[in-house]
Amino acid sequence: MAPGKEAFEGVEWRIRVADGSSEVLVPATGLPRKAWLGIKSLISGLALKTWMFLKKAWNIGANDPRKVVHCIKVGLALTIVSLFYFMRPLYDGVGGNAMWAVMTVVVVFEPTVGATLYKCLNRVCGTFLAGFLALGVHWLASRSGERFEPFVVGASVFLLASAATFSRLIPSAKSLFDYGAMIFILTFSFVAVSGYRVDKLFDMAHQRISTIIIGTSLCILVIMLVCPIWSGQELHSLITRNMEKLADSLNGSVTQYFNQTGECTNSNEDQADKKLQGYKCVLSSKATEESMANFARWEPSHGQFNFRHPWKQYLKIGASMRSCAYCIEALSSCINSENQAAELIKKHLSTSCLKVSSSSSKVIRELAETVKTTKKSCSIDLLMGEMNSAVQELQNDLKSLSHLLNPGAAPEDKKMETACMEATIATIPLMEITPVVTLASILIEIVARIEALVGAVEELAKLAEFPICDDKSNQSKIKDAIVSDEEKTERTMKALQRV
Fold first, then answer.
1. Could you read off the pLDDT of 290-346 as tens digits, one per residue?
2. Cα-Cα-Cα-Cα dihedral of 300, 303, 308, 314, to 10°?
């Protein structure tokens, strides 16, 4: 290889021929080679995408094994219902309509017990009602004569289909019977219109209803006996997780703005970002909560939940949490604002703001523990008192801030402190005072909304008849934690006074 060519033209490959000379190997650039390279790159790209898809599917199954269990249950139900085609005695019993049982399993099988029961019962009731009405319309049309029979059938389809469609637009009926109304329209139209040309309409309706009952019964047995997933339990766990995320987000938002000594901590954004995003899960869970609460009403008694468990109260708790989450979102916007508050004002309000956020987070976590254990809390009143006292302290600090900004209105015992700070305060512009005052006002509003959340949880405990928790050790731990927090707050205030 020549050094000059290697430097300017890249690497060359040479071979030695029979006469002792060497020749440069030039890669083929013809059409066949280009086609081969294109096919090779296409195959490798397809293989890479397939591997990435399989890896992603494996991660989804590993993160939530219940999805894999649901797929297995669907396959099991379809395999069992397919026996009506494979076994001759069963096939002769339902006729050629065995496919309706297979179709029923496909359309009504859902991941949770409540959703499956909702679809199964709606499908059976809608099919029964539509079948009987279609048979009655067919009997009435056949008695009206061959000339008026199509008009009777057409008028009945128009009236009943219109009425059923209108019922789907009523909110109270839509949440309970939307799927049943759709099945009613489909079945009634199919049976009524088919009866005009089919002679053995009763036999056809009987076979269709029988296969649908078989399919729905099989789905109910499989979904309830093989690793059941209850909508009520899922809703219960979702509310508990959202409360914990709300508490972490509230506490993290304030600690991002202040640290434990009153100094700014805006440099710790990466560490607090995970907690700050928790409120977004609360804001986006409304549709999930409503669907789970609707399906949970169809479930029988299971675990610690009775058949008449107050699932609607969970929606009120979710609404109260979203009300708090909206304030935390405003709090996050205030923290990320371009207008930065003066360090002196932040130090003045840091202790009380941190105390309010800490006590509020404790109240929310205690509510989460109440919902999780389904036991009334013995320490919620104590935590509420601590939170209210922290709010009162914050309000007093805000009032003292007005005295600092207006030295002439300060009381006599604060004249010396005001005189020392007067020169500094006079140079602080209004735009540097507004952010921290806004943050304090939002914290006070959050406390008011947390009180509404406490009322919603207490109403749930009353309706569901939660037992009273008599864990004295837990209550003593909470008291000790409150005392230690008060001691830390006093030490922090003394340190700030020395500064």
1. 999 999 999 988 888 888 889 999 999 999 999 999 988 888 887 777 666 666 677
2. -120
**Dist CA 222 CA 319 (whole Å):** 34
Q: How many other CB atoms sit within 10 Å of the CB of residue 427?
A: 9
CA angle 34, 38, 44 (to 5 degrees): 145
Whole-model pTM: value is 0.77
Q: Which residues pair with 468 in a beta bridge?
A: 376
Q: Copy the structure tokens of residue 387.
A: 């939170």
What is d(CA 391, CA 363) in angstroms, rounded to the nearest whole number?
13
Mapped to the 3 state alphabet, what secondary structure does the chain carry? CCHHHHHHCCCCCEEECCCCCEEECCCCCCHHHHHHHHHHHHHHHHHHHHHHHHHHHHHHHHHCHHHHHHHHHHHHHHHHHCHHHHCHHHHHHHHHHCHHHHHHHHHHCCCCHHHHHHHHHHHHHHHHHHHHHHHHHHHHHHHCCCCCHHHHHHHHHHHHHHHHHHHCCCHHHHHHHHHHHHHHHHHHHHHHHHCCCCCCHHHHHHHHHHHHHHHHHHHHHHHHHCCCCCHHHHHHHHHHHHHHHHHHHHHHHHHHHCCCCCCCCHHHHHHHHHHHCHHHHHHCCHHHHHHHHHHHCCCCCECCECCCCCHHHHHHHHHHHHHHHHHHHHHHHHHCCCCCCCHHHHHHHHHHHHHHHHHHHHHHHHHHHHHHHCCECCCHHHHHHHHHHHHHHHHHHHHHHHHHHCHHHCCHHHHHHHHHHHHHHHCCCHHHCHHHHHHHHHHHHHHHHHHHHHHHHHHHHHHCCCCECCCHHHHHHHHHHHHHHHHHHHHHHHHHHHC
Contact 351, 262 (CB under 8 A): yes
Bridge partners of 24, per DSSP, are: 14
Q: What's the CA gap between 367 and 475, in Å, rounded?
A: 14
Is 433 in contact with 345 (CB distance < 8 Å)? yes
Q: Taking a C-beta distance cutoff of 8 angstroms, is the pair 379, 474 a contact?
A: yes
Closest CA to 353 of 257, 483, 267, 243: 257
Cβ of 282: how many Cβ atoms within 10 Å? Answer: 26
Cβ atoms of residues 101 and 214 within 8 Å: yes
Are 460 and 310 in contact by the 8 Å Cβ rule? The answer is: yes
CA–CA distance, 489 with 493 (Å, rounded to integer) = 6
Instruction: Round to whole Å and give the CA distance between 348 and 303.
Output: 51
Question: C-alpha distances in angstroms, 302 versus 114, 132, 159, 309, 311?
Answer: 11, 34, 41, 10, 14
* Residue labelled with tokens 């405003």: 330
User: 267 falls in which pLDDT band (50, 70, 90)?
Assistant: very low
Residue 427's pLDDT is 54
Cα angle 313, 317, 320 (rounded to 5 degrees) comes to: 140
